[in-house]
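Encode chain A's predicted structure.
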Amino acid sequence: MYDQQCYPIIELYDYLNICDDISEVSGYFTKLDKISDLLLSVKGSDAMLFETEENPADDPVLYPYHFSTQVLAWKTFKILNILNAKYKFSQKDYALIATGIKKDIFEFMITKHNGRRLFCYTTDLKGNFELYHDANDLPLGLAPLWDFIDAEDEVFQNTVEWAFSSKNRGYYDGNFGGLGSDHAKGHWPLGDSQLQAIALSMIKNEQSKGKILWKNTLDMLESTVQKDGLFSESVYPDSGEVYTRYWFAWPGAAISWLYLLNDIRG
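Encoded structure for chain A:
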């Protein structure tokens, strides 16, 4: 899967920002250019966008160009550019690649729904679009924090409003409802981490509604967290009880990181 190549590069960058010690990770630099070759091998012929057969939930996609995969690719090549400027492991122009990805996302991955412009979920680059959003598609929530788009951008706002509503088949109404996934039914705490990220981007821009969204999201998370502090894959939207997989690593990692990020921001 595409994200399995991208997220480790972002993690490497975060590690170096924290400790600035390459002794434990220097061997990875010889592999980064080969990884970028692998990523570029699935680039489409008509755009700087990347084909995938699965979304981050490991489910088949309707069309090969998947939105959050492209945002993740953009972030990855931005980081490769920063790392390459410091450690000199490639002749590629990673900045140019990242610029091309962002341009083509806005050219090919915006559609209209009920007269409003929003990002599609998947497309074939030929005018066909799928509308959906999944709890596993974390790059949408992170897009403003990553400076891919402003949280107040109309297209982003329209996408989020649609995604976190019953219009999206991945959203579950109920007292403990929220964003879920086709992969396993129910409300996923991982979906709440996307709301955390959106709230933080608003707080960063000193928007008071960000603090309200942050508190409301934490209230939901506190109502679904287990006694040991871990989160399940999904919960029943009516009761908040565990629906699938009592322990699921990704939501705990994402939620904890966002807690820490908010603490750093003060």
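The CA atoms of residues 205 and 261 lie 14 Å apart.
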